[in-house]
Amino acid sequence: MELLHGLLNRVSIQRLEAPGPTESQLEIILQAALRAPDHASLKPWRSVMVAGEGLTRLGKILQQAQLERNPESDQQTLDRCLNMPHRAPSMLVLIASPTQHPKVPTQEQVQATAAAGHAMLLAAYAQDIGAVWRTGWVVSHPLIRHAFDITECEEIIAMIYMGTPSVTPKPAPIISSHPFIKHWY
Ligand SMILES: Cc1cc2nc3c(=O)[nH]c(=O)nc-3n(C[C@H](O)[C@H](O)[C@H](O)COP(=O)(O)O)c2cc1C
């Protein structure tokens, strides 16, 4: 029942403030991710928790990355990059780290990582931690990849911002399942 409640009602929270998850809350989030479906139990992912000064460091790298993308970026854009990681007190960077396997193709390992990401969101929600999964150009920029030691085989799947909701969460939308299912007898 509790599980269904989370599955049906979790929503992303964009506005987040301190505190972020505690060590024990983070451990639950990681344990939930480690229970995600995963062909051959490869656990084909790793994660990096960014908080405190790490957010400021990341903001500076984002600014540099933006300047590489467009050397004529205006100050407003650069300020936005600097402040981007500070949209929450913590950010969990989720990295797919596939290996060669005779039965489990890379794509399945990336899918397993995404399943782990969803489990992280649900475990955050279950602990009243607000969270939102973000990506965008930042996840594939060489400077960001370098910052998190992303190897050639790896990719950043999510930057999960986490913190205390500073707004009342919107209710989950009600969506008809009709277009998403066909019965085949
Ligand atoms: C792979 C992936 C990448 C996403 N990237 C972004 C993003 O960069 N920015 C953003 O605002 N939302 C992004 N989202 C969507 C949000 O995380 C969120 O799911 C969406 O705003 C809908 O809100 P809900 O989760 O409450 O339904 C992404 C979701 C996924 C699965």
Write up what this structure looks like.
The chain has 185 residues and is α+β, with helices and mostly antiparallel strands. It has a domain at 16-50 and 88-168: NADH Oxidase (3-Layer(aba) Sandwich), CATH 3.40.109.10. It is built from six helices and five strands. It has helices at residues 2-9, 23-33, 53-69, 75-83, 106-126, 142-147, and strands spanning 16-17, 45-51, 90-96, 130-134, 155-165. Strands 1, 2, 3, 4 and 5 form a five-stranded antiparallel β-sheet that branches. Helix 2 packs across helix 5 (106-126) and helix 3 (53-69) runs antiparallel to helix 4 (75-83). The chain is globular, with a radius of gyration of 18 Å. The relative contact order is 0.23. The mean pLDDT is 97. Bound molecules: flavin mononucleotide. Flavin mononucleotide (FMN) is lined by residues 11-12, 132-136.
Tertiary shape: globular
Could you tell me how far the N terminus lies from the C terminus, measured between alpha carbons in angstroms?
30 Å
Strand-residue fraction?
15-25%
Please tell me how large the radius of gyration is: 18 Å
The CATH topology of the domain at 16-50 and 88-168 is NADH Oxidase
**What is the assembly state of the chains in this entry?**
single chain
How would you characterize the largest beta sheet?
5 strands, antiparallel
- Unreliable stretches (pLDDT < 50, length at least 5) are none
